[in-house]
Amino acid sequence: MEKSNAVIKDNYSPRLTNEDLAPLKEQTWTSYNFFAFWMSDVHSVGGYIMAGSLFALGLGSWQVLLSLLIGILIVQLFTNLVAKSSQVTGVPYPVICRATFGLLGANIPAILRGLIAVAWYGIQTYLASAAFLLILLKLAPSLTIYAEVKNYGFLGLSYLGWLAFMVMWVLQALVFTAGMETIRRFIDWAGPVVYVVMLMLAAWLVWKAGWRALDLNLAGVKYTGWASIPIMLNAIALVVSYFSGPMLNFGDFSRYGKSFSAVKKGNLWGLPINFLFFSLLTVVCIAATQPVFGKLITDPVEMVGHIDHSFAVILGGLTFMVATVGINVVANFVSPAFDFSNVAPRYISWRTGGMIAAVGSIFITPWNLFNNPQVIHYTLDVLGAIIGPLFGIVIADYFWLKKQRVVVDDLYILDKKSEYWFSNGYNWKAIGALVPAFILAALCVLLPSLEFLLNFTWFVGMSCGFVFYYLINSVHKQRADIVLSGRA
């Protein structure tokens, strides 16, 4: 059991406080810890599949590579913005949201982000289970019949698939319940390990294909020249949407940073620099599958599965299992743990909140949300429509309205004396900006006439959230100034 690293004062309200949500006594994470965090995030099976799915847009290798790099630079910029407030205050995302949405109103963004994490937790668990299933069938080929969904399946997943999914589910829960320090140590080595295996896989594929047979101008390329720019913009938007979850609640991790400088340095190495190498490996591996296997394969687990050598398949499968467990525990277990704990701190601990997310992930049948490029893109678009408005409002409030000033103690005092009490604990200006911003972003998904904005839901939602919140507060301030001048 880890020792408490929280500062809880006597005047803190039990309805707003527990040891997991309270400000930290010590902030110990270095740049390497954040670098390792992003390595785990990027190097999951989901990360490779997302990158590979961009080829389905009809882009060539260099176009996909450029789109990935521009997208990740945008992610780095916004991640640094959202990291600042939590690093300075030492509090997690749902608590810093109290300054924007109100002491009780913060439960709205917390629950929304928590539900999104439930979906992602299920998706990543399913992707990790695919690697486990690959190993299982390699060791016991006679079980292949039970991997057929048609004859031996339930809710779209085979019986063997269910077994693999639940095994991964339990393994991840064991890592999570060990505590945050154990999680930090886990991700410190999980991300780098994947690099070693991916380098070996890339070297083997290139060796088998031969340099001359390696064609980066893939046969599926439909767009060249100026015609490719709108498609690349869509690809860039999809990259941002993919990372929008951990980007929004990055404060859950930046709160542990020794300094904001350490956070930014870790993000620099972990995002553009790490992602450049990741993107190159992805493009080379996918391009090499055409001459080696006779077809284009964008799923790294499937790539490994086509290798004849059993040891290589088992090693590759285990590596992708570890990588995906790393990102899942970090991004989709830790965050909802804080989010759901924030709703009722007296009754829901950090560990209980995480288990709520884990149990919920089973019921959404996540294998139906990430099973082909079209569904992947649609899932990212829907999630972007929800996350974007929250991001825009939080950033507008902290940097524009509050000028980077937060009174930490007032985030835990459920009383009119608190600076963040607002109207009975709810900031209706923030909620009033959130609702129309979400509706406009959602319409991009629902209306065929707005199909050209489908992949830009995060940007639409973020921009609308920022602008609406700015306008509502500006009008409110003008009215207040008029009232004060009239009294004078």
Terminal CA distance = 60 Å
User: What structural category do the secondary elements indicate?
Assistant: mainly alpha
By CATH, the topology is Hydantoin permease
User: From N to C, what is the helix and strand string?
Assistant: HHHHHHEEHHHHHHHHHHHHH
User: How many structurally independent domains?
Assistant: 1
The 3D shape can be described as globular
Spatially, the strands of the biggest sheet line up as 1-2
Largest sheet data: 2 strands, antiparallel
Which range best describes the helical content: under 10%, 10-25%, 25-40%, 40-55%, 55-70% or over 70%? 55-70%
Architecture, CATH level 2? Answer: Orthogonal Bundle
Q: What is the average of the pLDDT values? A: 85
Structural summary, described in words:
The protein is mainly α. The protein has one domain: Hydantoin permease, CATH 1.10.4160. It is 68% helix and 1% strand. It is built from 19 helices and 2 strands. It has a two-stranded antiparallel ribbon with strand order 1-2. β1 (153-154) and β2 form a beta hairpin. α1 (31-42) runs parallel beside α12, α6 packs antiparallel against α17 (373-401) and α8 (180-209) runs parallel beside α12 (260-293).
What would the keywords be for this entry?
mainly alpha; 488 residues; 2 strands; two-stranded antiparallel ribbon; Hydantoin permease
List the helices and strands and how they pair.
Blueprint lengths: L30 H12 L2 H9 L7 H29 L3 H4 L1 H4 L5 H33 L13 E2 L2 E2 H19 L2 H30 L18 H15 L1 H5 L2 H4 L5 H34 L6 H6 L4 H23 L1 H10 L6 H14 L9 H29 L26 H19 L10 H31 L1
Antiparallel strand pairs: 1-2
Helix pairs in contact: 1-8, 1-12, 1-14, 3-9, 3-12, 6-7, 6-14, 6-15, 6-16, 6-17, 7-14, 7-16, 8-12, 8-14, 15-16, 17-18, 17-19, 18-19
